[in-house]
Amino acid sequence: MQSCSLTPSSTMERGVMLAVCLLCWSCSVCVVTAIKRADMFSYGTLSGDLILAEGDDETSRVLSLPKPLFFYGSLFSQLYVATNGIISAQDLPMEKQYVDDGFPTDFPVVAPFLADIDTSGGRGQIYYRVTETPSVLNRVAQEVHRGFPDAKFTPTHVVVATWENVAAYEEQTRTTGPSDKVNTFQAVIGYDETDSYVLFLYPEDGLNYFGTRPKESYNVEIELPARVGFSRGEVTYLIFSRTEGPHYSVTSDEQSVKNLYQVGNTGIPGVWLFHTGNRYSFDNIVPASTGGLLDTPPTGGHSLSLDSTTPEYGEFEEYPDTFDSDNQEEEDDDYPHTRGDPEFQPAPAGGNHHSESLQPASPDAPSSHSEDSGHQLSYGSEDVPLTSEPRYSSEPAGRQYAPPNPPERVPEGDAQRTPKQQPQVPLEVVDVYPSHRNEPPLSPGGHVVSVEEDDVDFDTGVIQYTTENKETCARFQQQCSQNAFCSDYATGFCCHCRPGFYGNGRHCLPDGAPQRVSGKVSGTVTVGSTPVELNNIDLHAYIVVGDGRAYTAISQVPEPVGWALMPLAPIGELFGWLFALELPNSQAGFKITGAEFTRHAEVIFYPGNQRLSIIQTGRGLDDHNHLTVDTVVSGNVPFMPPGAEITMEPFKETYQYYPSVATSSSVREFSVVSAEQGSESFSFQLKQNITYRDCQHDNRAAVLETLQIIMERVFVMYVKEERILRYALTNKISPVGVDPTAPELVNPCYAGNHDCDTTAQCIPLEGQAFQCRCATGYRGDGHNCYDIDECAEGLSSCGAHSQCVNLPGSHRCQCQSGYEFGFDGRTCVDIDECSSSPCHTSARCINGLGSFLCQCQPGFYGDGFYCSQTEGQTVRPRSQCEQHRDSLQSGMEQSDRPSPGAFIPQCDSDGRYQPLQCHGSTGHCWCVDSRGQERTGTRTPPGTAPKDCDRPDEPVRPKTHCEHHRDSIQTTSPEGYPIVGAYVPQCDANGQYTPLQCHSSTGHCWCVDSRGQERADTRTSPGSPQTDCHKPDEPERPKTHCEHHRERAQTTSPEGYPIVGAYVPQCDADGQYTSLQCHGSTGHCWCVDGRGQERSGTRTPPGIPSVDCDKPDEPVRPQTYCEQHRDSVQTTSPEGYPIEGVFVPQCDSNGQYSSQQCHGSTGHCWCVDVRGQERSGTRTPPGTPPVDCDKPDEPVRPTTYCEHHRDNIQTTSPEGYPIEGVFVPQCDSNGQYTPQQCHSSTGHCWCVDGRGQERAGTRTTPGTPSVDCDRPVEPERPKTHCEHHRDSTQTTSPEGYPIVGAHVPQCDANGQYTPLQCHGSTGHCWCVDSRGQERDGTRTPPETQPKDCDRPDEPERPKTDCEHHRLRAQATSQEGYPIVGVYVPQCDADGQYLPLQCHSSTGHCWCVDRRGQERTGSRTPPGTQPKDCNRPDEPVRPETQCEHHRDSVQTTSPEGYPIVGAYLPQCDADGQYLPRQCHGSTGHCWCVDGRGEERSGTRTPPGTPSVDCDRPVPVAPTQRPESVCERWRTSLIEHYGGKPDAQQYVPQCEPDGQFSPVQCYGETTYCWCVDQDGREVPGTRSHDVVKPACLPSVAPPTVRPLPRPDVTPPTNTDITLLYAQGQKIGALPLNGTRLDATRSKTLLTLHGSIVVGIAYDCKENQVYWTDLSARTINRASMATGAEPEILINTNLVSPEGLAVDVKRRLMFWVDSNPDMIESANLDGSGRRTLFDTDLVNPRAIIVVSSTGTLYWTDWNREAPKIESSSVDGQNRRVVVSEGIGLPNALTYDSSARQVCWADAGTKRLECVSPDGSGRRVVHPSLNYPFSMVYYRNHFYYTDWRRDGVIAVSKDSSQITDEYLPDQRSHLYGIAIATTHCLSGSH
Q: How far is CA 1810 from the centre of its chain?
């Protein structure tokens, strides 16, 4: 083997050396061998290393750094070394949270080899140390200087971490035995005070495995490649939010990991160097850029002949003058490429290999490749990283890197060659791109992938780019979406969606908004042997982007095809892929394809081998932003029995991505269950490709290779009665191998179980936390979002002559009649109708704004569309009507197909429009005038008599220009509100402009000519005499160019307001430009020629004598660089306004830069060199003497810290404008901080030390004497508490602006609080104690006498309840501002509640008892006489249902504000419902029965006579009992507090009490079908456009008996959760603490019941439950075939919570209607009432058998609480009453002996000890809990938002599991059933 050392010292030597090496290369290759282990940095105990403990997931103790290091731009002072091949700057989480994930991590990481490593059992050692050893420091410095020659770096410390012979983690259950593969590698971090660098070292035999298997791979043989790179981790933004920080990946796949020890970026294989941090500014990691030979020894020996695989890397440094790339291109093409080692295969040299490697490049480097030619490879020759591209690229030009395995490209410079034919890629081939076979370079077109190569060919086009035909944004930006921006690149342009939108740039949709799809389905499908034609039937789809649910419905599907197409879920899968829920590092299809694509799929069914072709074409977005997709199906499908059910299991499918095409292939299984055949299994194979137009001019675009679609749920069904075929799928997309159930993906955003609105995005935060953000175009809190009407709110982008049309989440602009979109696709321009010659040949066409006019020429007569001379013509030309009619008919003939629905005008025998026109398709008719224009008010719908069109209209003259102008002004908004300030022209009776026009809002008046144009010099301001507009103008000569220019200068806005600062040219008396022009606002003057063009070099600034413009120009010399610079500075806007603050360079008479430059606005001056560059250290601020710029520069000393600080301050914007309010430090002549610093904007001054740090206590405000900063600092006493408080109060913003309203405490000379404190803004004053705490009762409002704070406090009695209550009512905010509208209780002198309380804001008054509780019936509204509260209450009868209903209605908010619009029932003196009820807000009235239920047909709207409610209503012989639906509805409404939210479920019942066939969540469109018992029909859930059309399913009159309710317990389960779900009790086994959904089943079906409370008796193995419908308490043995037993069926109204005392054999329950708690023996005997007072809404109840204690919740919305007592009703007390809202769920943690509850109001899960101590929050953000149990450190609760069972770990406070039953409806009670009683059972 021969090696070469390349160190040329001159161009000639480099050329000679290249020739030598090329000669050498002809027989062998120059190779630098990889490093040996001995070449690594020393390690081991002898080197002072610490050793990491053995194990699978170990982390070192903190490694404290002697000095902190900069990683990225952040400072870190400690490190941790971990088993899994990483070093972190913070303590690591458990490995399962990162080890199986891709980059980046969410914590700071240096990763030389991130994989699942295990050193257990002595399989390797991990060493680490921080050192200052000179030899180590010197070696790091040498490596850095070699890789970064310009770096000034001297390391002060080095961290060395070594992984020696470490093994990969392997599962214990695997039978192959432990592997003997081990790895050795090293990471070295060197740093100084400002920079850090990292070395990765991989010795020659160091890497023997390249990835590890995920721990939860479920027996799937997959391996995750190791991750190598750097991650900053999550960073904070907007104070509380966090986002992914910068990161850099060195590897991307297994091959790139294998290359780690075979290549490098330092000139030595196996050695990698990176710049990783800087003190001042650092965007992302910078790899080293060392030249030299980087190559890999080929397999099988060291010699490499010319016909073998060519090395891929840039072997030499740049030789631009001595290498002919074109010749090399041809030479390389003569040699075929052969395959080498399959595990490490260098990429083929390809077309222009060396020309690519010998040119620098950058992300923005020019490229000649066409749009679809693949990915840019030419990153530069100096280095080779292992990824196809870094995640972020911040390198300058010349320091970009080529990947080691690049796909071949058309070589740069060869763009105009004829490309070779692109080979087709068959669908079955997986390993296609990049290819190592003998393939020509890729053509500019994309890959072609087809199902059948012979039948299908997708031509993506070939475009050769030259400077002549290159597409640019200037020419083609209209191809971009209106929600995108256009960017030009070297080879063309690309469109990119704006922030807040997603797509491919050509089509962009609002982030997070649900998407709708519409289209047609056509084709011929043969079912068995019967062909069935589908003729353009409708397809609709609805996709909830936030959780990946896609619903598809195809209507009018004939029955045989409907059943047969049920397995064809792939029709709907397209929409799932386009809009799938994105897991990290993935993107859904729409971001790649946009709305235009073609999908070809072939489905082959087995065992019958039937084949069906599916072609789906995306045709763009319609006017409503809905995607339009047409589907064509053709082929054969197997017959499916009518009524069959199809089930499909969840599956994963891998998509492979190539340029312009995505492909996939899979096999699916499905089951068919039918009455005839039972259950059968079938399968089909799906092969598909999706072609689209991508844009590859942007070489920074991400390269996708493979992604996987995860279909978590698949429902299919055919509704025979409606002939609708439905598909419902839940889709996620992720990198291949990602487990969506992994802990890091259990975040609700990824799991799809969040509660964000369907028009909102779910933003994952840390752990289980997430944030709901309304989609673009919507507003709200994220849980409820509402469309923003951009048109109504003036937020549209529509311009003149266009109108705005609001869309969900967006809007569109459409041009008015007579206008069309211009070239840019956004601006409406007039249609020149005359260009199409619509008039007669003997007429002339006059185009106008939005219309045109035809006039016959002199000597001809007619309407302009047909003109004839006085004598008749022999042949009449075609009339306008005939031309109109024939053009439509000929267009249909040319298209070879009829155009259904097109309107064809009808003409009479003379060619004129028939007066009555009718539309053949719609049946509408209308009258037209002679031009065919519809006559207003004549249109009639089909089925009605048309108008008599021969009846003459009343004479209507055409609208004049003035009337058109006036009527086009929009004076009212879309909602009908007047728009203030619009100018409306005034027209006279003949429709002409009145000579005098006035603006009604501004008062300006002016004269106009007959065209409405303002006459010059006639405008008068409001209050001044108006011009006489009837006075004739003098004869007017034609306007000159100058006068036209002057008039075009817009001096008034369209509304008539003057525009300040516009430049108006000056014309002389003859209308010519005056030779000297001056700008009235800026004062600049210049000379112009006869055309008004500025004469170069004549412009003078204000205050300087103007140039003599009459002096002839001297011969003009070429402009210098300074003059070009000066003249290119834009000092005025396009409208002529001056631009303030722009710097204009000053040039001398010879055009050279003046040696001294000054900024006209800021006053700064500085010296420049001949190139105009500022000379360092010469800048002086305004008011100081400038530097003598002619004095030669003195030797420059290094910049000091002060100067560096000062020069880094940005005082001007990139455009040159001054930035106000910036603090610029002041430095003395030696560059040191001046002792006194002052802020030029705020006027504050302060003293600083030598480091520029402010000296405490020296800051003075503007206008006060400054501190003497040269006076030595006196010994300073420690700050007092008051001074700390005062100094910590932020009185100025970070920019130095004062903050108004902050309270600053006042301290005396000794630093103690002054006894009297006053708020500077509000004027309140109060006394404080020595700790600064306010003394009660001392606060006085402004303008009242403050308290005497030196007067001692009188002995104070303890505060009463009333006084405590009054204090809690926050009368002032934390800043001291009063809070308006808060109710503050009134106390008497003794602190007791006054009997009469009144609300100062609302005026309501009421009586209270001594506890401050309102006495029932005593509240009076404002303006009425309050009650006499001293009068004793009469004996109170029990509240009636009407009174209970009335009092439960919440009429005031918690703060005491009235709630408007609530319906309050009216009761009579006896508490019964008044027969007639009226709504106080809406005015509707209706009659009710004795139960308050509305009587059908009695409701009347406001303003109409009410029904006589005393008139008897015919009543059926027997009143039917309340149905299950009605009882359930009543119960839920009561549970929702009488006012369900718009999204809460309330059963919908028919008038006869049966369930409505369609049920929906509140007012939403989330609906489903139910059967007669209210049970959901599977697969019918949908939204809006696919809202199910359900048929009533009420049983016929002859009702068959319902099946007997037998118990079916689960088998082989020790622990089972029992849950109540409407009409059944479900059983959910536990596997350990995990929910075992696979074994879940229905324990007991109870038709007609509503099961709420549930309990379990572990001694007798029996389940107990309350039935809200039957109003009973029941039980059943959990034995197969057992039947229910009714225990109690009397005097129950609304039984809910239930508890069983196993020890005492008692049961307890709450009844929430009479508000009582009762108990009984387990057989129902011994019933007694425990409590029936002081309860409002009792809900949950539990019993702790071991202590004999009852606990229950009462979610009284006014005063919720949790109480307890003994089981016999003694010792009742309140356990919790503060900080709770709706405590629904209650359980007992026997291990901690705490009571725990889940609150549907606060959303918290909390626990507290029985004595009220030790309260803690277990989980802060639940959804809507209802019931809960505790088992083995886990809480299991039923959730009404998710309609499922949720598990929460007590230890981690995280949601760990979830179970959602297939049938979605609310789950109620939950209990735990065990085969034996648990310790601490309650």
A: 44
